[in-house]
Specification:
The complex is a heterotrimer of chains A (338), B (328) and C (78). By secondary structure, chain A is an alpha/beta fold. Chain A is 36% helix and 19% strand. Chain A folds into 2 domains: 189 residues, Thiamin diphosphate (ThDP)-binding fold, Pyr/PP domains (Rossmann fold), CATH 3.40.50.970; 128 residues, 3-Layer(aba) Sandwich (Rossmann fold), CATH 3.40.50. In chain A, strands 3-2-4-5-7-6-12 form a 7-stranded mixed β-sheet, sandwiched between helices. In chain A, strands 9-11-10-13-14 form a 5-stranded mixed β-sheet, sandwiched between helices. In chain A, strands 1-8 form a two-stranded antiparallel ribbon. The chains are: A alpha/beta (338), B alpha/beta (328), C mainly beta (78). The structure holds thiamine diphosphate. Thiamine diphosphate sits at the interface of chains B and A. Chain C: This is Biotin-dependent enzyme.
Chain lengths: 338, 328, 78
């Protein structure tokens, strides 16, 4: 019977569990951010921590992002392992200097003498009409700027394993979780994100993509919520006899170009699905990894299903028009194969 | 500085319109969200931050403003918008995501822009402070008479933007009035836990400008103190910082379980409703009869109902409209 | 023997309806006493439902189903 024993977690629970387990064994780990204490994080990912670890290690901050991001960098360089949260990735504008000019560069500037072991958690994504300052992904922005590792889980298993790896990492890691995958009912959670998650410690290696569905006709490469759109599209394509492979990037930095290339070498077709803006971002980079390497494997020009280059509109009808979805992926494939 | 009878009645009317408006928005917001509370559902999706209890801060200040004066508001903007004279129908259409909304449905409740009355708001804490300074700078450089008011919550006074903007307005002697609405909570974090000083008004000293704390959530008191600050600004004497004690009668946003509030706080605040108190004051002072007050309330409700009905009956935008208006 | 998994009367304060947002075990899984089996959301608050017995769980209410206090949402076959 023990093989039927399972423990499904939402991503919110998986993140909180990883942090709690790590905090029990390493006193240097602490958490700070807005509303992460009594409230347990707007997206539930710090639920239960203040009850167990108290206000000394679970610190609600003032709305002073430049100060507490900078403090995280300083604490990390000084021997602690801070986990710092800013609840929406959209808010980073107010403190970006501490992130891309400081957190991300100090290891390099010091010639490797300084370590910056910090994790920066932030939520991404829209689809629930929260408007253009509460719905962005900006994955590409973080991935573009050198010096920070970037991860974005699509399910609870990866969420826990990536969090463990991120906390242990001596370089800064930006941990981007999608609101629609958190398991918060009020955001209409994607079910596929709540999966079996071991209680014991394990890591998912930062920089390793995962082939979450094997196929032979097209590679659909995505991250976060896009993986679930891709899986739905793959199921739909299967009905018309098309075998789609789905690659979950899981990490953007480092980017697992080998897995992408191997997949496209097999299928000959590439669709990148990205909820971030279309231009100058993840989708272009994934395509470049293939075409720079070996153009001869391609049976069709690579395509992308991404958010158009406009701020995210509030009205549902307009936002949904812009967002990637399974139908758009299927239609894109049909055009490619025609 | 005392309001005229007309100004008093205007303030009461706007406070009631604002409260009725929030009640109507709350009802519309909950449509399609019960029993399953999914933010994406219903005619008004997304987050919704209500201003119930904070009406005195809006009317006591805006009673002194003209259309050419700029207001930059927060993520909790409805009371401020109503007091500044933002078109209620177009604002409501925007909140319902309709094509005839202020932004054609692109902005939503945190992004209301009405150029006719120089009103704007935003979803990033502290974001409006710089633009208020800029509006004041522009008026000054153009030798025009408008001033600017930047509204923020007390939580935002811990943002770098607050301190930088105060300093900038002061060194350039600009006609800006900074208004902090102190409802003592920034989502779940209390002012006491987040702020090194009891009153943010003392921070004005660090930027060489007058600062005053106004207790009581009383529109008349706010009218007086704000009037003096605005007069100073208009007279070219530079910026002022005012912190207004107020109360957040609703959750941070609709659906907030408010588990962080101390027991009894909510009941105490509700028992101290500024609208009820102002109403009694008007009657006791003989400013208005019960009947006159009721007439105002009926008219306020009608105005709100009309705006909501207008929004509901309006057309959705075309999906492709999402791609327009990116550039001027 | 079969034991019902019931939404406890004290899971939330008021008498309003909730919704199952996540099953944290699959139908047919083995559970222990106290295993967290489901999350129920009431308005925006999430509540946890634990297994009252050890055994194999047979789920009778799906995710997104609306539930009231006292409702049976699964059975445990001991
Ligand atoms: C830069 C930034 N950080 C954090 C947030 C998230 N947030 C939204 S409202 C809020 C609390 C604001 O408190 P306060 O300024 O006191 O205004 P109130 O909500 O009480 O009206 C926070 C932290 C944000 N919108 N922008």
């Amino acid at each position: 019977m023990s093989d039927t024993k399972e423990r499904k977690l939402t991503i919110a629970r998986a993140m909180a569990e990883s942090v709690a387990q790590y905090m029990r064994k390493d006193e240097k780990v602490f958490v700070m951010g807005e509303d992460i204490g009594v409230l347990g994080g707007v997206y539930g990912n710090t639920r239960g921590l203040i009850e167990e670890f108290g206000e000394e290690r679970i610190r609600d901050t003032p709305i002073s992002e430049t100060a507490f991001m900078g403090a995280a960098v300083g604490a990390a360089q000084n021997g602690m392992r801070p986990i710092v949260e800013l609840m929406f990735v959209d808010f980073f504008g107010v403190c970006f200097d501490q992130i891309y000019n400081n957190m991300a560069k100090n290891i390099y500037f010091s010639g490797g003498n300084v370590k910056v072991p910090m994790v920066l958690m932030t939520s991404t994504g829209g689809g629930y009409s929260d408007g253009g300052q509460h719905s962005q992904c900006v994955y590409g922005t973080f991935a573009h700027l050198p010096g920070m590792k970037v991860v974005a889980p699509s399910n609870a298993y990866d969420a826990k394993g990536l969090m463990n790896a991120a906390i242990r990492e001596d370089s800064p890691v930006v941990y981007m979780y999608h609101k629609g995958l958190q398991g918060m009912g009020w955001l209409g959670t994607e079910r596929g994100a709540t999966v079996n998650t071991p209680e014991e410690y394990y890591e998912v290696e930062i920089g390793k993509a995962s082939v979450v569905r094997e196929g032979t006709d097209v590679s659909i490469v995505s991250l976060g919520m896009g993986v679930h759109h891709a899986l739905k599209a793959a199921a739909e394509l299967e009905e018309s006899g098309v075998s789609a492979e789905v690659v979950d990037l899981r990490s953007l930095v480092p980017l697992d170009r080998d897995t992408i290339r191997a997949s496209v070498a097999k299928t000959g077709r590439l669709i990148v699905v990205d909820e971030d803006y279309h231009s100058f971002g993840v989708s272009g980079e994934v395509i470049a990894s293939v075409v720079e390497h070996d153009i001869s494997v391609l049976k069709a020009a690579p395509q992308r299903v991404a958010f158009p280059d406009v701020p995210i509109p509030y009205a549902k009808i307009m936002e949904q028009f812009c967002l990637p979805n399974a139908d758009k992926i299927v239609a894109t494939y049909k055009k490619m194969a025609a | 500085m005392q309001p005229t009878l007309e100004q008093k009645m205007w303030m009461y009317e706007k406070m009631v319109v604002s409260r009725r408006y929030e009640e109507a928005i709350a009802a519309a917001y909950m449509e399609g969200k019960s029993p399953v509370f999914n933010m994406a559902n219903g005619p008004v999706p997304g987050e919704m931050h209500l201003s119930n209890g904070q009406e005195p801060c809006a009317v006591g200040v805006c009673a002194h403003l003209k259309d050419e004066d700029t207001v930059t508001a927060t993520h909790r903007p409805h009371h401020q918008a109503i007091a500044k004279g933002v078109d209620l129908k177009r604002m409501t259409s925007e909140i319902f995501g309709k094509a005839n909304g202020l932004g054609g449905g692109r902005g939503g409740h945190m992004h209301l822009f009405d150029d006719d009355v120089n009103f704007a708001c935003s979803g990033i804490i502290g974001q409006g402070l710089g633009p208020a300074v800029g509006a004041a700078l522009s008026q000054t450089m153009q030798k025009k008479s408008g001033i600017a008011v930047a509204y923020i919550g007390e939580g935002a006074a811990n943002q770098g933007a607050f301190h930088e903007s105060l300093n900038l307005a002061a060194v350039w002697n600009l006609p800006v009035v900074f208004i902090i609405e102190d409802n003592s909570w920034g989502i779940s974090v209390s002012k006491q836990k987040s702020t090194a000083v009891e009153k943010n008004s003392v921070r004005a000293a660090g930027y060489g400008m007058p600062g005053e704390y106004v207790a009581g959530n009383d529109p008349l008191e706010i009218f007086k103190v704000a009037g003096e600050a605005i007069e100073r600004a208009r007279a070219g004497k530079g910026p002022t910082l005012l912190e207004l004690q107020t109360s957040r009668l609703a959750g941070h946003f609709i659906g907030d379980a408010e588990g962080y509030r101390p027991e009894g706080e909510k009941d105490a605040l509700e028992a101290d409703d500024p609208i009820t108190k102002f109403r009694s004051h008007l009657i006791e002072q003989g400013d208005a009869t019960e009947q006159e007050i009721e007439n105002i309330e009926t008219a306020a409700q009608a105005q709100v109902d009309e705006a909501i009905a207008h929004a509901r009956a309006s057309e959705d935008p075309a999906p492709e409209d999402a791609l327009t208006s990116v550039f001027a | 023997m079969s034991i019902d998994v019931i939404i406890p009367d004290d899971l939330w304060e008021e008498d309003n309806e909730g919704v199952i947002t996540s099953w944290l075990v699959s139908d047919g899984a083995t559970v222990e006493v106290g295993t967290l089996v489901a999350e129920v959301m009431v308005e925006k608050i999430q509540c946890e439902v634990e297994s009252p017995a050890a055994g194999t769980i047979k789920i009778t209410k799906e995710e997104d189903d609306v539930v009231n206090k006292g409702d049976v949402i699964a059975h445990i076959e001991a």
